[in-house]
Prior knowledge:
By secondary structure, the protein is mainly alpha-helical. It folds into three domains: 6-130, MgtE N-terminal fold (Alpha Horseshoe), CATH 1.25.60; 146-248, CBS-domain (Roll), CATH 3.10.580; 278-452, Tetracycline Repressor, domain 2, CATH 1.10.357.20. It has 23 helices and six strands. The strands form two sheets. The protein has a three-stranded mixed β-sheet. A three-stranded mixed β-sheet has the order 4-5-6. A hairpin with a 5-residue loop joins strand 5 (231-235) and strand 6.
Amino acid sequence: MTVPEPWELGDVLSEVSDLLEVGGVSVALKRLSPLRPADLAAVVAELSEDHLRQLLDRMGNEMIAEVLDYLDVDRGARVFDAIPEARRPTVLDETSPEVATDLLHRIAWDEAAQTLVRMRSLNVIGDLLVHDDDDAGGLMSPTFGKLREYWTVRHALRVLRQMELDPEMLRELFAVDANDVLVGRMELSELVFAPPNATINEVMNRDVISVAATEDQESAVRLMQRYRLPSIPVTNGRRQLQGVITSNSLVEVAEQEATEDMFRLFGVGGGIGSRSNIREAIRSRLPWLVLNLFTVMSAGYVLSLFQPTLDAMVLLAAFLPVVMGQAGIAGTQTVTIIVRSMALGESSLSNVWQLLFSEVAMSLVQAIVVGGILGLVVHLWKGQWALTILVTCAFALNLLLAALSGVLVPVFMRLVRIDPAMASAVIVTTATDICGIVMYLGLASIFLTLLTG
């Protein structure tokens, strides 16, 4: 079976929607049956509410579970809401425990409790539900390769065969003592080639990195990236092994966190996608547009204070957008880099001076190269040395300000426990606009006699 292109899945979606529109549920299911689970999930998630309910009413529990396993939490919750309540426990029993937990987190607690008590995996899911979605405990899988340190290698291999675990969960194995305290780790290949009569304690690696169940999931992402771990064990306060987070789960988390930071950085709001309803979009975007309106009006007011200077030499207005715009872009670039490095744990409050030095050095290089090109263009165009020096100096000073604010604004927001991705770009852009006007026209007021002479 070939891998379908996105436009081919779009054609399937159109066909299935047309069939469901006329009540052809059986034919629609037949059309979907050859698809791989991931492609099936992509099509099903895009169906309208009515068509989705029609299809799920006739779709088998295992097939629905496959769809849920291949969807992100938001789209999975939309599909889960369309499943009849009587079938939800059976469907969730067919999904992975972490997916079932995420979906139960998305519905009202009384509904989740009613669903949970009718599930076969009540104990496993119940243990996961006590953790928040953003905690490492909420991301872990409770099914993994756990070995007792006093087992022999021969016995451990026999137990693993009987457990019938997913191959992904067998890539790395973790050893515990009699009290379930994490004491070591080893790869499956190391276990297979170890002497059969040796104990796990003798062949395991005692250098094991773990994350607490209550820690933020970003901490797990950073640890796995730093040490290039295929999986990371999750422990409680007594260092007892609770579960394991795989690399696949953390890739999804890293993508989700990066997307949320990108949305927030530009005032869109984390988690607001193209399929969100109008009310969510307005609630997320409108406040930042209003804030931006006031910042632009502030810049306009500052500009009005220099009206006599602009009236004296209209030519100055031609280069004002250059000074403001270039610094705004440079400041946004700096903010993006700093916020991203903070999210990945590459920068913190402890290395502010290093960040400042790096960005100031970069701004000086930009001022020399870009400012030099700008100054040359201004001089060749207007032939006035005073105007050339004015534009170049204002441009360089505003670039320096952009670098400083691009570092200090997100650092300050982190210091006062505000998400740096939330409004850093708006604040930095406002600072470069207003200060750019003040520096450019302030210098122009001083050199006005030279410019008009």
